[in-house]
Amino acid sequence: MTKSLDESRATLLIEASRALGVTQEELGRRIGVSRRSIVRWTADSSGYPSYYGPHLARAVFPRDPALAARIAGREKETLESLGLVSPAPPPPPPEPPAHMADLVVCAAADALDVSPRAVRPALYAAFRRAREAGLTLEQVEKMLAPPEATPAPKKRAKKGG
């Protein structure tokens, strides 16, 4: 088991009171219970009901984030899940392999019926300019797409004829 699940709620309650430097009455006020509840929970080895763990973590967080994390962990929560800290941003996507650009180069070369070696410098210049202009690939693709062909009007068959 993790350390935070091994710690008794009563021990965490006492540590919270010390970290905040408050009386049992003031601690009770901060988490929305009476002084009598705090006294009872401190004396009982099981401590406070799990419902009050998030309230206690929020009260302690400004003074002792590490203790707040232990209290949250005791209730199978995290500082992130309690809204006390922002979750870490996701890692950036991995860089695609360099040879993936060859797919684009070969498609352009095929469309122009030229060697990929001949089209690569032109594509590099075009993509660089698009990036400098702040354009996304989707925007460039949409701007370069051929206009949609409008269907020719259907001819009517002549009657009787």
Describe this structure in words.
The protein has 161 residues and is mainly alpha-helical. The protein has 2 domains: 3-74, 434 Repressor (Amino-terminal Domain); 98-144. It has helices at 3-6, 9-20, 24-31, 35-43, 53-60, 65-74, 101-112, 116-132, 137-144. The radius of gyration is 33 Å and the shape is elongated. The chain starts with a helix and ends in a 17-residue tail after the last helix.
What percentage of residues falls in helices of 4 or more residues? 40-55%
Strand content: under 5%
Class by SSE composition: mainly alpha
Helix and strand string, N-terminal first? HHHHHHHHH
List the helices and strands and how they pair.
Blueprint: H1 3-6, H2 9-20, H3 24-31, H4 35-43, H5 53-60, H6 65-74, H7 101-112, H8 116-132, H9 137-144
Helix pairs in contact: 2-4, 2-5, 2-6, 3-4, 5-6, 7-8
Keywords:
161 residues; mainly alpha; 434 Repressor (Amino-terminal Domain); 2 domains; 0% strand
Describe the structure concisely for a colleague.
With 161 residues, the protein is mainly α. It is built from 9 helices and no strands.
